[in-house]
Amino acid sequence: MNFIYAKVEVDVSGGKIIDVRILEHRQERGKAAEAVANEIVDEQRIDVDTVSGATNSSIVIKKAVEVALKGNA
């Protein structure tokens, strides 16, 4: 069994998410989920839609962004 893993870096300025960079993403078929990073920046929220066919990777990336944002608080 392989585990999905994501490490991200999030830039915040003036209370806005200005960039989400995926530094590492271990996945099976979830490469498409990396589009979630752009959605988070565009929507300015973590609760964006997951990518169909890459739901688990999408969830992992969103959680990694959440953890990174808590570190920026």
From TrEMBL:
FMN-binding domain: residues covered: 4-72
Entry-linked Gene3D superfamilies: 3.90.1010.20
Pfam families, sorted: FMN_bind
Signal peptide range: none
Molecular functions (GO terms): FMN binding
Domain of life: Bacteria
Record GO cellular component, one term: membrane
Name used for this protein in its record: FMN-binding domain protein
Species in which this protein is naturally found: Roseburia intestinalis
